[in-house]
Amino acid sequence: MQFSDPDYDWNQFIWTCSNHLVLPVLYLKFLKYDLLSYVPDVLAQHLEEIYTLNRTRNEQILLQVKEINATLNAAGISPIYLKGTGNLIDGIYGDVGERISGDIDFVLLES
């Protein structure tokens, strides 16, 4: 079965992608490879909304990281950011909205 098949189970596909937290990157890949025309319009709109919300959240996380850094650095504390936040800071993603990240994980080193 292919995406272009009218009987394709989009609900199952989206459920699986959502459970694996890959909807934003899925949207970006569909967009990059001009595949959005193969998905139902309502689904394409949904994917775009999820991506946009995620991008906005990640931009807010990056702003919060700057505030955390300023506060901790002023006290002589150096945070090390982990997982999704660390990867966002390192710029390993082609787009800041690509990865779902809901919190800021960091450790503190004592000098």
What does this protein structure show overall?
The chain is mainly alpha-helical and 111 residues long. The protein has one domain. The protein is built from 4 helices and 2 strands. The chain has a two-stranded antiparallel sheet. The protein is elongated. The model has no long low-confidence stretch (mean pLDDT 92).
Give a summary of the structure in a few sentences:
This protein has one domain. The protein is built from 4 helices and 2 strands; from the N terminus they run H-H-H-E-H-E.
Secondary-structure map:
Layout: H1 10-19, H2 23-32, H3 41-74, E1 78-81, H4 83-90, E2 106-109
Antiparallel strand pairs: 1-2
Helix pairs in contact: 2-3
Major sheet attributes = 2 strands, antiparallel
Pattern of helices and strands: HHHEHE
Structural class designation = mainly alpha
Taking strands numbered 1, 2, ... along the chain, how are they ordered across the largest sheet? 1-2
Fill in the keyword field for this structure.
two-stranded antiparallel sheet; about 110 residues; single chain; about 55% helix; mainly alpha
